[in-house]
Write a sequence for this structure.
């Protein structure tokens, strides 16, 4: 046993030594002293690219101080705070040359040589065309300069040893140029490029390995986003009703589509940004993603049936919990959801059509019940109240279990109680 621990310790030291060796030779780049000048057309192009990349979603806490950073990004390895990417010379990127900006985007290295944590998705941005990197640089360098010092990250040991990121890069950073598919249409290829680079869709919708890298053998097979389940966007999509390309394009720009649930959680920020982006680019993303979604087999689900949800069967093996869930549903949900949603109605989607009931993971449904759905500040959109102060854990758990069984006719979620407890503690 001691010998086993000794070899583990040696292996850990070897990894740390390798990481430290790789970390060496990342020099600081000279600060930029004269502010660069940019063509207005290039800046406008960069603005569109920033929206496609949802840059404001991570780098803005206060809407009155865009891109000043400070957002807490919680990961399994600790909390990373987004940085100031305005052209403030002291606390932002005002002293960064285009070469320094390019190195950060492609290699995840700051101007001073520090390795950036991959909560910043440089492993996606590395495949951006240089013209797009230049346009983004022009856009950020022409934003109002705001003083906002970086907050200290709170990473768990040993991940607070930043040179370990070099080892992560060896495993997951592929710096080869982007390659389109000549067998596909120009619109599909544009969508593939945007979705896999700027929009970094796989960052949320693809599972991650134990080290936090994307499991590209299961691309778009479902993942995590801020403790929400990001559903699969391929043949394993849990959607109870199929997506059309037109409905997907509308959803990406508005957060709502016929017969599908409204955008909630982190997806709301995506919609806010894509609503302001070039519609042609969003159409291209929809074309690309839909090429995977349409591979999902046709399913017979309760979503194809009309009517309200039934009372639990008397022979249900979990009858007490199901009765509590049904009673909670009738008191808190039925008055809106049983009516069904019209184009301009104040009612809501019938719940047997809601994808959160069909997810293999209960977290999204738990968050929706607890916290509701509210449009981001200053935005309009569908609204649902949260029930965190109205329902206790037993009621919330019973409601989710009931909706899973009688709304989706799915197998019980194994970790439902844990999901409810974790959501309450956040």
């Amino acid at each position: 046993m001691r010998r086993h621990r000794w070899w583990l310790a040696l292996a850990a030291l070897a990894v740390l030594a390798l990481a430290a060796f790789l970390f060496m030779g990342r020099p600081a780049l000279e600060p930029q002293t004269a502010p660069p000048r940019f063509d207005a057309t290039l800046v406008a192009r960069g603005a569109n690219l920033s929206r496609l990349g949802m840059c404001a979603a991570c780098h803005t806490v206060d809407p009155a101080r865009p891109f000043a950073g400070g957002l807490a990004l919680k990961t399994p390895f600790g909390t990373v705070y987004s940085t100031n990417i305005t052209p403030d010379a002291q606390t932002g990127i005002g002293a960064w040359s285009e070469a320094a900006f390019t190195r950060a985007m492609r290699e995840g290295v700051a101007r001073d040589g520090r390795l950036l944590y991959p909560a910043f998705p440089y492993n996606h941005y590395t495949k951006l065309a240089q013209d797009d990197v230049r346009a983004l640089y022009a856009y950020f360098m022409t934003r109002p300069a705001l003083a906002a010092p970086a907050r200290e990250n709170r990473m768990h040991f040993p991940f607070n040893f930043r040179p370990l990121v070099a080892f992560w890069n060896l495993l997951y950073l592929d710096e080869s140029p982007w390659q389109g598919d000549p067998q596909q249409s120009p619109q599909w290829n544009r969508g593939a490029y945007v979705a896999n680079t700027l929009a970094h869709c796989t960052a949320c919708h693809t599972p991650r390995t134990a080290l936090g890298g994307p499991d590209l053998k299961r691309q778009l097979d479902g993942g995590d986003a801020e403790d929400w389940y990001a559903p699969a966007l391929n043949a394993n999509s849990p959607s109870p009703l199929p997506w059309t390309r037109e409905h997907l394009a509308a959803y990406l720009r508005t957060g709502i589509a016929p017969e599908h649930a409204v955008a909630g959680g982190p997806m709301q920020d995506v919609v806010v940004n894509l609503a302001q982006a070039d519609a042609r680019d969003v159409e291209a993303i929809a074309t690309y993603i839909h090429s995977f979604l349409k591979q999902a087999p046709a399913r017979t689900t309760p979503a194809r049936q009309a009517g309200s949800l039934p009372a639990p069967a008397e022979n249900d093996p979990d009858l007490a919990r199901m009765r509590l869930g049904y009673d909670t549903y009738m008191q808190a949900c039925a008055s809106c959801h049983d009516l069904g949603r019209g184009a301009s109605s104040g009612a809501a989607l019938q719940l047997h059509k809601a994808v959160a009931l069909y997810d293999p993971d209960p977290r999204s449904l738990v968050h929706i019940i607890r916290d509701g759905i509210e449009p981001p500040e200053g935005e309009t959109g569908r609204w649902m109240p949260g029930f965190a102060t109205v329902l206790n854990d037993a009621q919330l758990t019973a409601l989710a279990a009931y909706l899973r069984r009688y709304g989706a006719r799915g197998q019980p979620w194994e970790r439902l109680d844990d999901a409810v407890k974790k959501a309450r503690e956040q």
